[in-house]
Amino acid sequence: MTTWMFDDRVMTDGEAIEEWKRDGYIKLPTPLDPSTLDDLRTFTDAIAAGDPRLDGADPVLVHHEQTIHGVAITRAENLVPNHDGFRALTSSGLLVEAVGRLFGEPAVLYKEKINFKQPGGAGFAPHQDATAYKFADDHITVMLAIDAATLANGCLDMVSARHDEILATDGDGCIDPDIAATLDWRPIELEPGDLLAFSSRTPHRSGPNTSERPRRALFMTFNRRRAGDHRAAYYADKVRHLAEHAGTGTGTQRVSTIGHFQGVAPA
């Protein structure tokens, strides 16, 4: 997964940058090298199967949920130490350079995850990622669609031009429901290999997967390099937070330091 066959100019022309500044997100149809996508799917399948080779000194952090079809994997994190391709992809090269151009300065990886959203998998309440990211002030996430993201399987809904502030929350990091109801939500459907870049202050949400196929996607989040490399601190803090909140909820599964995930904890 070390070769990315896409044109870096797609994120650098004036029209694209202006769209980014205006909307707080930008969709990038991407001619991804088929072997790269195949490699990513193979790695994703290995995680879902509980491949023991991934249980090293710095193992993949895996979350599950209870669905109508049984217990299902819903998220995997801390992928970089377990795959050379992820390290290469997120440390240098076209993708990192393109994110840097959106920032207007060099970028460094903040965190990475795969959201699986299996059939029957839950969605995410309206939120801004910035409420969960406390080690830097500004972030850009790039979503890479492993499978097609559609209305039926719970694609992301985004809100344009509302990335200049942190909106009031419900006390658990989600956008206050009264405010969320006033926002103009737009579904963003993606084909496999497409990219969607969005600011950590861009309001977004997603529905449940009501289809019979998974909606897997890789999410890579970056911050400005001058703000520091906080990846290790982020994961240490998150593991501590999840341990402190284990068994203290109302049945909703916790996958973050905010309560946006709407899935049910496994029995």
Strand order of the largest sheet: 1-9-6-11-4-3-2
Roughly what is the average pLDDT, rounded to an integer?
89
Work out the helicity level: 10-25%
Instruction: Give a short account of the largest sheet.
Output: 7 strands, antiparallel
Write the element-wise H/E pattern from the N-terminal end onward: HEHEEHHEEEEHEEEEH
Q: In percent, how much strand structure appears in the residues?
A: 15-25%
The helix/strand class is alpha+beta
Instruction: Determine the N-to-C terminus distance.
Output: 36 Å
Report on this model:
With 267 residues, the chain is an alpha+beta fold. The protein is 23% helix and 24% strand. The protein has 6 helices and 11 strands. Strand 2 and strand 3 form a beta hairpin.
Concise description?
The chain is an alpha+beta fold and 267 residues long. The protein has helices spanning 14-23, 34-48, 84-91, 94-103, 177-180, 231-245; strands spanning 25-28, 61-67, 70-77, 107-115, 124-127, 139-145, 156-159, 185-188, 195-199, 204-206, 217-224.
